[in-house]
């Protein structure tokens, strides 16, 4: 019987607090038909977390600061959501990270 502690790779991924940031981003994403909003994803790959949108115009829509949007909607919707959610994401990760490291 092997009593050695499992390695981080064997423990599997940490929970993804990216869902919180994705929700904040969804509330800001420019909205016309909802296609861009529906394409949003929060993914986990090992220790990496990714928030992404998948449309042919996503980069231009995110970066174009001169385009007009509905009230509450804006360019830089992922960047601003990430920056403003940083503290909340750290809080959401604290307990799961401690548990993950103890296992």
Commentary on this structure:
13% of the residues are buried. Helix 2 (18-26) runs antiparallel to helix 5 (77-102). The protein is mostly helical. 48% of the residues lie in helices and 10% in strands. It has 5 helices and 2 strands; from the N terminus they run H-H-H-E-E-H-H. It has one domain (12-96). Strands 1-2 form a two-stranded antiparallel sheet.
Count of DSSP E strands?
A: 2
Mean pLDDT metric: 82
Output the radius of gyration: 17 Å
Side by side, the strands of the main sheet go 1-2
Biased composition (Basic and acidic residues): 29-40
Region (Disordered): 1-40
Topology:
Elements: H1 8-11, H2 18-26, H3 35-38, E1 41-45, E2 48-52, H4 58-63, H5 77-102
Antiparallel strand pairs: 1-2
Helix pairs in contact: 2-5
Brief synopsis:
By secondary structure, this protein is mainly α.
Question: Main traits of this protein?
Answer:
two-stranded antiparallel ribbon; 5 helices; 103 residues; mainly alpha; elongated
